[in-house]
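Q: What structure does this chain adopt?
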Amino acid sequence: MGWLTNWLTGWLKDLLIDGIMGNFSGLFIDVSNQVGDVATQVGASPAAWNSGVFSLIRNLSETVILPIAGLILTFVMCYELMQLIIEKNNLHDVDTWIFFKWIFKTFVAVLILSNTFNIVMGVFDVSHRVIQQSSGIISGSTAVTPGMLANLRTTLEGMGVGELLGLWMQSGFIKIAVWAVNIVIFVIVYGRMIEIYLLTSMAPIPFATIVNREMGQMGQNYMKSLLAVAFQGFLIMVCVAIYAVLIQSIATSGDPIGAVWTVMGYTVLLCFTLFKTGSLAKSIFGAH
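A:
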C-alpha cells in the first residue's frame, strides 16, 4: 500500500503544481497583454481610436459649436477694441498703431479659431509619440522569461501537498482579482477617451477667448486641461508598467504563498493609482 500512497501523493502533487503554474503563467501573460493593450489604447489619437465617434464629434463641433464661438469671438474683439480706446483716454490721445494692433489680434484670433482641430490634434500627436516611445521600453522590461518560471517550479516541487493545495486555491483567487483589475483599467482608459471627445467637441468656445487678457483665462485653462488629459495616458502607462515589474518578482520569489498576497496588494495599489492619474496630470499642468 505504501507504493500506492506514494504514487497518489506524487500524482496529486504534480497535478497541483501544474495547476499553480497554469495560474501563474496565465497571470503573467495577462499582465503582459495588459501592458500592450493599454499602450495601444492610451496612445491612440481621437481620430484613430474610433473614427466614427470622432467624425460625429467633429461635425457637431463645426456645425453647432463653431458658430457660437464665432459670436463669442466677435464680442471678445469688440470688447478688446473698447479696452484699447479707453486706455488711450477715450480717443483724446490716440495713436493709429492701436488699430493695427487690434486688426492683428483679430487676425490671430480668427486664425486660431479656424485651426482649432489642427491645434487639438497636434497636442494628441505629441502625447501619442511620447507614449509610443515609452511603450517599447516598458514592454521589453516587463516580459517574464522561461527561466523565471523554471525557478518558480523548482520552489513548488519542494512544498508539500497541503501547501500546494492552499497555494492553488489562492492563485486562482488572485487570477480572478487580476481579471477584475482589467475591468477597472477598461473603465479608466475608455472613460479618458470619452473625456477627450467631450473636450474636443467644445474646443472652439475656449479658443475664441484666448487672445484677450481678461477672458483668455478660459482658453488657457482649456489648453491646460487638454494637455493633462493627453498626458494622463503616459501616467497610466507608467502605473501599469510599475505593476508589471512588481508582478515579475513573484516568479523569482522564494515564498510563493507570501508572493501571492503581495500581488493582491499590488493589484489594489494599481487600482488606486490609476484613479489618481487624472488629478495628478491636472496638478502637473495647473488645470482646474
